[in-house]
Specification:
about 45% helix, 3 domains
């Protein structure tokens, strides 16, 4: 009897140890599986193309690709800031030069000062005449075929003029909504292309994000870096509402002045 009871107790303890081991193994496997969920081995096969990539599994992260338009917009804004700083420095330098010139002129005799002033006035008048001639020539060349209008669903987009200024082509534009409902625009969706089909980066200023339906006209500018224009002769512009994209404002043959 004692032998049988000892064997039974041994078998019971052995069964309990096996059960505890099995439960511990399953519990450890479950914890490890939960901890490693979403961890995948990177695919380093060179023959696999990006276009054929499978959907990203939960927990995996995609590689962030920079948008070319955002890069060009940032570069254009940086260049504009540098141009503004250079213009401020030039203006300060011109002011200091003019002050030093005025001090030196006061030290000269009155007759020589009068003659210098007359010669300076003649030079300034001649330079202003030349500047006026160049300005009128540029404006007449850039504003041919303008203004241009595009209308859809009661919304009107108008390009009034195009002028070169500070390394950029500035388009003077306006928006007006005579429809029944207000319209929202996201100007990062503004599509500008040249006559050779190349997409261009543009910065919009002064135009509202939501255009009310009261017929009020809003004016703004569309700035395009001249470095992107190359040898373009005309531009095309397309603008849609956001997010519905039901209306489409499109115009072409916007002249580029050189």
């Amino acid at each position: 009897m004692k032998f049988n009871s000892t064997v039974a107790l041994t078998l019971i303890l052995l069964a309990m140890m096996l059960g505890a081991g099995f439960v511990s193994a399953m519990w450890g496997f479950s914890l490890g599986h939960e901890a490693l969920k979403g961890v995948t081995q990177p695919d380093v096969r060179p023959t696999k193309k990006l276009a054929n990539n499978q959907e990203v599994e939960p927990g995996a992260k995609e590689v962030a690709l920079l948008n070319e338009r955002d890069i060009l917009v940032n570069v254009h804004a940086y260049i504009h800031d540098q141009d503004d700083q250079d213009q401020d420095k030039d203006s300060k330098t011109d002011t200091n030069d003019s002050e030093s010139n005025s001090q030196s002129e006061t030290q000269k005799p009155e007759e020589s000062a009068t003659e210098n002033q007359q010669s300076e006035r003649e030079d300034e008048s001649s330079e202003s005449d030349v500047f006026d001639t160049e300005t009128s020539f540029t404006s007449s060349g850039s504003n041919q075929n303008l203004p241009l209008k595009s209308q859809d669903r009661g919304v009107t987009l108008e390009v009034r003029s195009a002028n070169l200024q500070g390394g950029s082509l500035l388009l003077d534009v306006s928006l007006k909504n005579e429809g029944d409902n207000p319209v929202r625009f996201l100007y990062s969706f503004l599509n500008v292309t040249d006559d050779q089909g190349r997409a261009l980066s543009a910065i919009t200023e002064g135009l509202p994000g939501e255009l009310p339906s009261n017929g009020e006209e809003f004016s703004g500018t569309v700035s395009i870096p001249t470095a992107l224009l190359d040898d373009a002769k005309a531009l095309s512009l397309t603008l849609t509402d956001y997010p519905d994209q039901k209306l489409k404002l499109k115009m072409s043959e916007i002249p580029v002045a050189w």
